[in-house]
Amino acid sequence: MASVGVFDSGVGGLSVLAEIRRIAADLSVVYLADQAWAPYGERRLREVRSRSVAIARYLIDRDCDPIVVACNSASAAALHHLREVFSDKRFVGMEPAVKPAASQSERGVIGVLATEATFQGELYASVVGRHANGTEVVEQACLGLAAAVERLGPDHPETIELLATYVDPLLAAGADTIVLGCTHYPFLMPAIRRLAGDTVSVIDPAPAVARQAIRLVGEEPRRAGKTTFLTTGDPAAFAVQVESLLGVAVAPERVEIARQCEIYVVKGDLTRQDVDAIVNAANDGLQHGGGVAAAISRAGGSLIQQESDDWVRRHGRLSPGTAATTGAGAMSARYVIHVAGPIFREGQDNEGLLRAAVTAALEAAVAADARSIAFPAISAGIYGYPMAEAAAVLGDEVVRWVDRHPGALDEVRLVGFNEEAADHLRTALGRARSGSSAG
Ligand code: DGL
Q1: For 372-410, how does the pLDDT look when each residue is reduced to its tens digit (9 = 90+)?
Q2: 131 lines ligand 1 (CB under 6 A)
Q3: Domain co-membership, 7 together with 22
Q4: Is there a contact between 43 and 52 (Cβ–Cβ < 8 Å)?
Q5: Which range marks the domain in which residue 434 is found?
Q6: Which CATH number belongs to the domain containing residue 200 in this structure?
Q7: Does residue 184 have its Cβ closer than 6 Å to ligand 1?
Q8: Average pLDDT score over the chain
Q9: Number of domain units in the chain
């Protein structure tokens, strides 16, 4: 029988857990605090995203469904992505409660307190775009505040002093409604109320998120209300925190979630992948005229062809086991790694050539200091490699390489441009994984 999984970088998600337990004390919940990695809000979004995937995978392995991403920073970085990667699981995420705040503000000015990561994510921009409705939204990134709640506690004078430096500008801007856009902040509610006074309302999204998680569970069988507390940090220290924040004595377990490379399939447009490097299935002269190469060249702009021409002038044509790295122009990736997969034909070692191209791309990513990379099904388009076979070679080579190079990358995406291609890649990856764990 499944449990509800709840995770956060630390104690913040306890504000959501408390609501879940208040409404549905009979639910079985596994709470995971990723304290070895906290704070999330000051890390790069891509880093938080791959960490969130690793945590979700861990919770899924512990039979959790749905999973509540009880952290605004992780939701901003990863919610959409988690739903794509674990498409058969349910995720409930957090978004700053701009909608209710905008509808209740009388002065038409609301303030949002959140981490830097939350403000950077697309989720926040889309929430404001959809729900601000002409209301002025004043954003306040609260550097160090979640960490202060975590380390010192919400009542410590230094925490309150820091909080005041973030609340004051919102009041000065005339906000009459404050949104708590980080799950650590509800623990600061009494202090915020003291600082802001009675005329300002403060919105905590935890109850709404808890209700959504409970709705998802619906009438599914529930276990006897057991909550398991896990931390990647120090369990004794976490026990003290839980006791002081929730008033319950618990015995948390320490869990190890190693930095591991996540490999998965997504369906979509390669050029729009939010990764450090995308792989181009190029020709050996790096003339990006057709197929994936043309799409990359269009999306990135003229820089891609210019840098490719420079590369060929300096190094000559691209040989099968080599990669050429250029910038990515207007795309969100930092690099394009060009490899020349084989044009499929009888009488040559198609598989060996394709494997060499895949390895060259992975090695070039590491050389460029990229942590995440996205592959198309190299050679499977206009180069005529049968899709299922090309996918099998790609999946297998990536899995083997990642096994041999632990920690070298955080994320490898295999991108299928349509459902059929993505299905081939999923099948291939599944087979490669079972082969690698068996061997
Ligand atoms: N509680 C989290 C959030 O909602 C994370 C804070 C942090 O780790 O920086 O954003």
Answers
A1: 999 999 999 889 999 999 999 999 999 999 999 988 999
A2: no
A3: yes
A4: no
A5: 262-438
A6: 3.40.50.1860
A7: yes
A8: 94
A9: 3
